[in-house]
Write a structure and sequence with these properties.
Strand content: 15-25%
Domain GIY-YIG: 108-182
Radius of gyration: 33 Å
Order of helices and strands: HHHHHEEHHEHEEEHHHEEEHE
Strand order of the largest sheet: 9-8-7-10
Distance between the termini: 73 Å
Helix content: 25-40%
Largest sheet: 4 strands, antiparallel
InterPro entries: GIY-YIG_endonuc, GIY-YIG_endonuc_sf, GIY-YIG_UvrC_Cho, UvrABC_protein_C
GO molecular function, one term: hydrolase activity
Protein name: Excinuclease cho
Keywords: DNA damage, DNA excision, DNA repair, Excision nuclease, Hydrolase, SOS response
């Protein structure tokens, strides 16, 4: 069947109830009876099937081709294959249970989106540099139909750039706790490395708010084990002495540590390296893990511009408090717990561009805060 005329001639032997898909799969049924049960071309009761006019068959073929079925010259197996993305996009229809206006209002801009369900319950929070294309990708994704089936409307909040979107997404995940996002791990019990009076790095558990105020804290870890592993890697990677750093008990005065025996330690335990030299190398190794205390007396604004729009992201003690722009002159009201002390996620987002001098920071005297 290489031409439409040959196919039309064959279809004249089929009943009106026979679909084109059945016709295309019938050769496969004959070839693989164990996989596809054979369907007889004879109508029930043994009656001869009525013939279709050739012109009607030609018209049906044309309609099937417009629907994305493809030309009959394609391999027969492709008619049972999943439809390509272009076909799914052409035949996609908006879910009727989702507020259509909320979909139509999605901008081609950077920001954060919220899928909301019954009673406006938050289901999922995400961010994108193009809100419209990202949300439509969710709606097209067959693997997310459970989420889509629960959604009643889609809320979007535009931001001036990617930093603002990341900060806003992080705060919404904490405040809203949407059902379909990965649960954020509690950070109340965080661990760090702190120097003892003898100059040894020790694993210490501290309250989260201390990270923005205390001096000489190195690294932030979510478990004591992770902090211990980081300390061991630091000692091994920089040729430090495991006895001097407190990781190994000395076997006796002047006895070498295990690292010295395998020529990894430089001999601080045996007197071959002075305590001052070892301490200097220890501090250099720790420097990459140093937590920077908040260096300002009050909140600061990070100015971000994009697509003719400007926002000021308000940060205090490395915690994101909200953003100000031409439409929002006051910070939004948030739970009191979300406005206090250090925030690890905000710190991770801001610290690198801050240290590289990439942030446009401005003081915010008389900052207007909403009542929480």
């Amino acid at each position: 069947m290489n031409t439409k005329k040959e196919l039309a001639h064959a279809m004249n032997t089929l009943s009106h109830r026979t679909s084109l898909t059945q016709l295309f799969t019938r050769p496969l049924q004959a070839a693989m009876p164990s996989l596809m049960p054979h369907a007889s071309a004879v109508a029930p009761g043994g009656a001869a099937p009525r013939k279709l006019p050739a012109a009607l068959v030609e018209r049906l073929l044309a309609q099937e081709g417009q629907r994305g079925m493809g030309a009959p010259g394609h391999p027969l197996a492709t008619f049972n294959a999943p439809q390509p993305a272009a076909h799914r996009a052409a035949t996609f229809s908006y879910p009727l249970h989702i507020e259509r206006a909320s979909i139509e209002a999605l901008p081609n801009a950077c920001g954060v989106y919220i899928f909301r369900g019954v009673d406006d319950a938050p289901l999922y929070v995400g961010r994108s540099v193009n809100l419209r294309s990202r949300v439509l990708a969710h709606l097209h994704n067959h693997e997310e139909q459970f989420l889509i089936g629960q959604t009643r409307r889609i809320e979007c909040r535009r931001t001036a750039g990617e930093l603002g979107a990341a900060l806003l997404e992080n705060s919404l995940l904490r405040d809203l706790r949407p059902a379909h996002n990965k649960k954020q791990r509690s950070k109340r019990g965080l661990f760090t490395l702190r120097l003892s009076a003898e100059g040894q790095p020790q694993v210490t558990q501290v309250a989260e708010r201390e990270f923005s105020r205390a001096e000489n804290l190195f690294g932030i870890f979510t478990s004591e084990r992770a902090a211990q592993e980081a300390l061991h890697k630091l000692v091994q990677g920089h040729g430090l002495c495991s006895i001097v750093t407190g990781l190994e008990q000395p076997g006796g005065f002047g006895m070498a540590c295990f690292g010295r025996q395998i020529r990894r330690c430089r001999g601080a335990c045996t007197g071959e390296e002075s305590p001052e030299q070892h301490h200097q190398r220890l501090m250099q190794a720790l420097e990459d893990l140093r937590i920077l205390p908040w260096p300002y007396a009050g909140p600061m604004g990070i100015v971000e511009q994009g697509e003719g729009w400007q926002q000021v992201h308000v940060i205090d003690h490395w915690r994101y408090l909200g953003s100000l722009d031409r439409d929002h002159r006051q910070l939004p009201a948030r739970p009191a717990a979300s406005l206090k002390g250090f925030d690890l996620d905000s710190y991770k987002l801001v610290i690198q561009p801050y240290l590289l001098g990439q942030l446009d920071l401005r003081p915010l005297p008389g900052l207007p805060l909403s009542a929480g």
